[in-house]
């Protein structure tokens, strides 16, 4: 399907997520390294991956393109735009503050699972508005009841 789309000049818009903090909008793309805090964000996600694994997280490789090498799939999942935006929001807000993220595409299954676990581990409410609905994550559950 991707080859067909490419051959016919059809492009899927790049996924991005944005979060507003202190009156400023921060935009993240998949694997984004343009943000001034990208090194801290990546380090935070790397550290937090241990807590996620302890909580039972297993990466959902179905959320990664099929034309990506197996070795790269885990890394690609870690740097989805919504994960970068959520990590940035957590790092730069007061504990207990609700994190609000807007995503231009639908949230993938792996990010959905990850953000549910983050909400449980940190006791934070996280709201992600994707292209179809609002996902209100709280205490390890989502308002969509895992149907989206």
Describe what this molecule looks like in 3D:
It comes from Forsythia ovata. Belongs to the PPR family. PCMP-H subfamily. Residues 56-148 form the DYW domain. This protein is an alpha+beta fold. The protein is 39% helix and 19% strand. The two termini are 22 Å apart. The protein has helices at 2-7, 38-54, 70-78, 81-91, 109-122, and strands at residues 16-21, 24-29, 99-103, 126-129, 134-138, 141-142. A six-stranded mixed sheet has the order 2-1-3-4-5-6, covered by helices on one side. The chain has five helices and six strands. Strand 1 and strand 2 (24-29) form a beta hairpin.
Order of helices and strands: HEEHHHEHEEE
Uncertain spans? none
**For the largest beta sheet, what order do the strands appear in spatially?**
2-1-3-4-5-6
According to DSSP, the number of beta strands is 6
- Cα shape: globular
Structural class: alpha+beta
Q: How big is the Rg?
A: 15 Å
**What proportion of the residues form beta strands (DSSP E)?**
15-25%
Task: Considering the chains and any ligands shown, give keywords for the structure.
DYW_dom, six-stranded mixed β-sheet, 148 residues, globular, 6 strands, 5 helices, Pentatricopeptide repeat-containing protein, alpha+beta, 39% helix
Write the layout of secondary structure elements.
Blueprint: H1 2-7, E1 16-21, E2 24-29, H2 38-54, H3 70-78, H4 81-91, E3 99-103, H5 109-122, E4 126-129, E5 134-138, E6 141-142
Parallel strand pairs: 3-4
Antiparallel strand pairs: 1-2, 1-3, 4-5, 5-6
Helix pairs in contact: 2-4
Family: Belongs to the PPR family. PCMP-H subfamily.
Pfam family, one: DYW_deaminase
Protein name: Pentatricopeptide repeat-containing protein
